Amino acid sequence: MQTTGHAHPFDICPRLRNDVVFLRVDTGIYLRSAETSCVLKGAGAYEWMSVLAPRMTGEWSIAELCEGLDENRRKTAFGLIRTLLDRGFARDMPQSGPDLLPESVLTAFAPQINFVEHFTHADPRTPQELFARFRTARVLVSGAPGGVAAAAVRGLLRNGLAEVVVDDPAWGAEFDAEIAALAGKGVSATVATVPGTPEDLSGYDAVVCAADGAHTAALLDLTRRAHGAEPGPRLLPVVVDSRQVVLGPVSGPAGQPCWVCARLRLAANSDPAAAADFWRELALGPVGARPADAQGSAIARDMVGNAVAFEVFRLLTGQLREDDERHAVIQDLATLESRRERVLPHPGCPLDHGSVAVSDVMDTPSAPVDDADAYGKAAVLVSPGTGIMSGWTDDPIKQIPLKTGRVRLAPAGELAAGAREISAFDTDTILVARTRAVRSAVRAYVAALGPGRHRHPADPSA
Q1: What is the dihedral of CA 382, 386, 388, 394, to 10 degrees?
Q2: Model pTM?
Q3: Which helix (H) or strand (E) holds 425?
Q4: How do residues 332-355 score in pLDDT, each as one tens digit?
Q5: Cα–Cα distance measured from residue 278 to residue 242, given in angstroms and rounded to the nearest whole number
Q6: CATH class of segment(s) 137-342
């Protein structure tokens, strides 16, 4: 039962999850949420659920919900609520103090607080406490005025952050209209300006850096300062090139990947000319004037900026698991399509990422229980942008009489080596053939690095 340790079960204040739906069935009631579903059998179950569901808001205890019922009905109501708690359809809402947030803030940001409540079932803190943590956080947005950085600042203000710090005086009065709109709702908000990126970042909870062209070198400097720093902020990088925007992964603890790891893996899986342009700009700065639409259309910039603000919101309200921080969001600037891919530390990254544990690669590091489980674990290494392998190439192959698995392996070292296709076979299933192909590809990848080359020397900037 998901409770917060009440002395008596009737003191529990249940709140039904926002995504729970229920239907009448012949044997009782069918319940469904985003994670699970079940059928509760019993005469009158649907009627009881219809009565209790609107009242399970977390404001009243079970004792208050059952007030006025006789003993038999009290047992029925308690049994239904207990089942909802046990199955994860409801949670016990801890009661917060009345003055945690001003009424104007609660009203203006009710959707954000409800969102936090919906996704933080295991956190003992109340949604208001988690939102208050975000609202009072110190966030620095680094980047040239306009574009993605401006959209990110607006998104942070609209989601409830009380103060955003920017590091370029050229921003001027860019956000006065946004601040005035919030003031009209009785909510205070400010955008503070500092003259350049601070040397000491320990006073910030999160740093957002939007980089394109000339600003990419500044992002690299920020990454070197934030990576592995204890205490230190989380760094959320946004890297823009002529074709796509890459948001993340979140940098912080030394064992996590960084945006350099993501770009190295993208370079191995994409057009070499585009990769060369990116690294040339990082080393030498922009070559010639950049076109006005270098960061995509205004719609694309707003989409990415809102995504940045949303990631910061999730990070500071405790919704991002450690594994979530290891992912990057890749958005195509032409089609606006986006995908989320896991990033592994790259052996060629100049930053120290330590050793990569099996649990960093797979959600369940235990040995596979069957062929399907083995395939699922192997497939984690396959993704089109940041995977060690960029995809399966066995679709055109006739799978009769022998099953053939074939995967495209990105170059491990020099990009000039090009991608390889690794094949493996099985007499029964393509899942086993593909799993064997991945294992062979991993062996080839490690062999290409050579003995000891996976242990990169210390960051030369240290």
Answers
A1: 40
A2: 0.78
A3: strand 420-426
A4: 888 889 999 999 998 888 888 876
A5: 9
A6: alpha beta
